[in-house]
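We treat protein structure as text, and this decision shapes the records that our systems exchange. The tokens are whole numbers drawn from a learned vocabulary of local backbone shapes. Below, we set out a record of this kind in full and without editing:
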Amino acid sequence: PCPSAIVIGAGPVGAATALGLARQGFQVTMVDRVDMFERIKEAAFAGTTVDLTFGETRGGAISVVPNGLIALEALGVKDEVLAEPHNAIKEQMVFFKMDGSDPINHFAAETNFQFLRHNLTMPISAAATAAGVKFITSKKLVDVTQTAESVTATFEDGSKITADILVGADGIHSSTRRIVFPEAEKPKFWTTGYITVFKSPEELKLSTELATYQDGITGNIVFLSKTSKNTGGLFILEGENRDRDGSTDSDWRPYSDLPGESKKLAEVVKGWGATPEVVELVKLSTRITPIAIYDLPLMSTAHKGRVILVGDAGHGINPCIGQGVNTGFEDAAALADLFAAFSPEEYSTVFKLYDQVRQPRLKKVCDNALDVAKRMKDGTPFKAKIGRFIMRTIFFLLPKFGVIDEFGTYDYRKDVEKAVAAYKAKSQK
């Protein structure tokens, strides 16, 4: 019989993981808690189009950078993803003060691809379905049990699915992690904010297509990303909320009174001193979702028995460096490549090598993201001025010395190949 796998979570990383396992011969069942009928009713009530984005949030703009694209290519879905609406941008980011002054250009050696979340997820999900992945919705995980031969997922409706392995790809508030790793540290609240998607009836002519607007004193931040000719997203973070706990609700709901809420949010960012362009883009929002941002301390191991965690379920990376989904794609591709080198029965070896390959890489990325996040709120005008001077100096000197972005240009395949070769050489002795 074919080996079997359950993937909990159908966001972009869950779909990529399911695809990778299916292409290694697994019969994969991918499960998500999203209730499609509830989404249809919500859309009918609000008079909007049906949003069937799966995963923990409905999301906005997502950056896919070279390390993520390498993983998508290894999974065989790069061309399908790039066929979807997106915006290819050469420069990595322009960092402004909140009022649009004092631009600091950070250029990348490779192209940065900007997508709306559903445009990124759908081609991966379609490829997974074409590869034989069975997709089930409206299932909330409540228990996981393991034996020497299998693992069983139990859902709120009483149904059960049994397989050889289970992969938790269900986000930073992962039910899989909570059930299987009760000893793991809980996500730590960082701040609150909003994810918006905007759309213009005409082509957007923006002064900058990928930018960060920042108030180094309050910590208020607006990330702007143009994702196609007439669409884009804003990631609005409230610095003043970083000293209080936020909601633990993992099922964020977009506002239904969109005209009223977009006007209200536009006034908020205007009060921050944001540029008129940013304020107008908030008013163009077709969806606004309130969010709380968390950091997840890196676990010492991503697996236990027949269960393994990928993406935010195992390493909730602070969003300030845009590596969350990209490292998640690395996870999915690394797991698939390891199963290409070993049989499904050797899942224990695969999981151990996965830790060996992924943990050092993820620690570097998580630590860097936290360092960047801390620097984004300096607290005083003097510290904010010094912070921008340091940022400008670093971005100026890096290309002069030929230093590349080790996070964005990382190729996971080298570490996987090295680990597999070392293990097999040792086993032959």
Notes: The CA atoms of residues 173 and 376 lie 25 Å apart. The chain has a mean pLDDT of 87.
